């Protein structure tokens, strides 16, 4: 198996992980409320919303890292493909 094929597999895995993380964040965001009007006894709803916001914020860095990594691997694949094309030209 060649280097480009290995990079394509790695890129596919990284991109799949990125898509899963983005879908998970999107699902969390559907449960997030923009404004909450709470009565005195509804502290559990406020706690739940804080937990959701915390999870969304924690996903920010991994999503950014996966997106950058996916882009870098894709650029490397294209560069290697072009190099091999020019080499055999």
Which terms would index this structure?
single chain; 89 residues; mainly alpha; rod-shaped
What's the helix and strand layout?
Blueprint: H1 3-31, H2 43-87
Backbone structural class: mainly alpha
Helical fraction: over 70%
Assess the beta-strand content as a share of residues: under 5%
User: What's the total helix number?
Assistant: 2
The separation of the N and C termini measures: 22 Å
Overview of the molecule:
With 89 residues, the chain is an all-alpha fold. It has 2 helices and no strands. It has helices spanning 3-31, 43-87. The longest helix is centred in the C-terminal third of the chain and has 45 residues, at 43-87. It is rod-shaped and about 75 Å long. The model has no long low-confidence stretch (mean pLDDT 89).
Brief write-up:
By secondary structure, the protein is mainly alpha-helical.
